[in-house]
Write a structure and sequence with these properties.
The protein is about 30% helix and about 20% strand. The longest helix has 19 residues. The chain is globular.
């Protein structure tokens, strides 16, 4: 079911139980002298906040330290060894159908979401030879869970008898923040072990999911993983299939959205890092950059973990001591590696566009970009080659870069043996360590959208929203929430939001899960 409500609400998908979150009543736009807002950070969260504010007449200046927008989904031009121009990025991202608010943001520039293309399957493969797929799994719970168990080769009759169903009951009725109160003190690994899932299923499916947070399951909060199961599998009828951008991130997503912001009168200042934010005596804030200072009535800090810590540390008058302590205590996830290879020959024609892997050393997934991204496909068609991308999440501390890069390619040869005979026309490796870590017991210390300063809000996937959202959708949702908090102060109606259902779908299953809460 598609629908649209006031305030530029994003259209929801097929789930009739998707939850709508209405903003507080108010005027459609600001009146009188328009207030100004500095949005610090040009990733998904910052772009969402800037868009919602500019649409309602706020004078927005968006500061981004890098030369390109998109944050962890940015892209930048490179020249390959054969002289071809290409766009490099930090790697593959899946745009799930549950990302209602992110899709609502992208619709500002492309109402039909023509920049996204669907991949037909979400296959998984273990080094033992076991394989799984979500293509034929029903989308609506509880049939999704039953269908997965019935179709998966990792669940045998003996395995089902050995499982501990009572330990799995929290999965049937996930509520926020209740799930954190119950499970934030347990690791994802411990929680899965308590259920006694079959070992093959544990490695093939559940570990693949938990590692999508760029963390080892032994350090990841079980509450985050259980919330993820609810969002993508047990609480939503959107299913686990997803879309991908049909061109590199800048061309498909961020350049059109930047043009939209410019048309609304917003100033977008890339290559402009913010050094500090200082409250002014008579209200508002002074924002300092290497190029000078700007004065703004309000500020949205939409930064990654290290960026937020750095700006707050350099802005000693922001917030109060407790808030600053919580920001300083934020942690980043272990480093990850993205390796993109331009090969001189194609992969086998039956290779999927995306494959999740387990048991292949550090290799977590393989994408054949030339199968679905326009730029990569054109290069492959012109050269007779292919473009393949490899991901390794949560690499061990102290790992050696060139060794890990070689190991990752060796695992590709195991997964797709035909690539062993290919010559590498060019290779680009991106090492990053800037994703937020959601450690065991850390939920209560994460910052919320609102801060001790009414004119200062925080956005990003590191933020605690008390809504069933995660990853890119948490970034977009928090950006809209940050804008809404400021708009309320001016009596302006903010952005209508959507989420997946905020509780289990079945009254019977909710009652069973209630026994564990009791």
């Amino acid at each position: 079911m598609n629908g649209r409500s006031g305030g530029g609400a994003p259209r929801r998908g097929r789930d009739r139980r998707a939850r709508v979150i209405l903003p507080r009543p108010g005027r459609a736009r600001v009146s009188g002298d328009a207030p100004s807002t500095a949005v610090v950070g040009g990733g998904i969260a910052g772009l969402a906040a800037a868009t919602a504010l500019a649409e309602r007449g706020v004078r927005v200046t968006l500061y981004e330290r890098d030369r390109t927008l998109g944050g962890r989904l940015a892209g930048w031009p490179v020249e390959l060894a054969d002289g071809s121009p290409a766009t490099m990025s930090r790697g593959f991202h899946a745009f799930f159908r549950q990302y209602y608010n992110l899709r609502g943001l992208l619709r500002r520039a492309d109402p039909g979401l023509g920049m996204l293309t669907a991949l037909p399957d979400y296959p998984l493969r273990h080094s033992s030879g076991l394989a799984d797929s979500f293509r034929h799994v029903p989308r609506t719970p509880p049939w999704s869970a039953l269908g997965f168990v019935a179709l998966s080769p990792t669940f045998g009759a003996r395995d089902l008898l050995r499982m501990n169903p009572s330990a799995a009951l929290p999965l049937l009725d996930v509520r926020v923040p209740d799930v954190y109160e119950r499970l934030d003190g347990v690791s994802a690994h411990e929680f899965l072990a308590s259920i006694r899932f079959p070992e093959a299923a544990h490695h093939l499916a559940f570990e693949v999911f938990s590692r999508s947070f760029f963390a080892d399951p032994r350090t990841l909060s079980a509450a985050e993983m259980v919330l993820m199961f609810h969002i993508y599998f047990l609480g939503s009828s959107e299913g686990l299939l997803f879309d991908v951008p049909s061109e590199p991130f800048p061309a498909a997503l961020w350049d059109p959205l930047a043009r939209r912001l410019a048309a609304l009168g917003a100033r977008v200042r890339t290559a402009t890092p913010v050094e500090c934010v200082e409250p002014r005596t008579h209200g508002g804030y002074r924002v300092a950059t290497p190029d000078g200072e700007g004065e703004h009535d309000t500020v949205v800090l939409a930064l990654d973990t290290e960026g937020l810590r750095t700006v707050v540390a350099g802005s000693p008058e922001l917030g109060d001591a407790r808030w600053r302590e919580r920001v300083a205590g934020l942690r980043t996830a272990p480093p990850f590696l993205v390796s993109r290879l331009w090969l001189d020959r194609p992969v086998a024609p039956d290779r999927p566009g995306f494959l999740g892997t387990s048991g292949f050393g550090s290799l977590d997934n393989v994408s054949v970009l030339s199968g679905w991204e326009g730029e990569a496909a054109r290069w492959a068609a012109r050269t007779g080659g292919s473009v393949v991308e490899l991901h390794a999440y949560a690499l061990p501390e102290g790992c050696v870069r060139d060794v890990e890069e070689k190991r990752l390619v060796e695992q590709l040869y195991r997964v797709y043996p035909e690539t062993r005979d290919a010559n590498v026309v060019d290779a680009r490796h991106e090492w990053r360590a800037d994703c937020p870590l959601f450690p065991v017991g850390g939920y209560g210390e994460r910052p919320t959208v609102r801060t001790p300063d009414p004119g200062l809000t925080v956005a990003g996937d590191l933020v605690r929203t008390d809504l069933p959202v995660a990853l890119m959708e948490r970034a977009a949702t928090s950006g809209f929430l940050a804008a809404n908090a400021l708009l309320e102060g001016w009596g302006v109606r903010g952005q209508t939001l959507w989420t997946v259902p905020d509780r289990g779908r079945s009254a019977v299953l909710r009652a069973l899960a209630g026994r564990t809460r009791g």
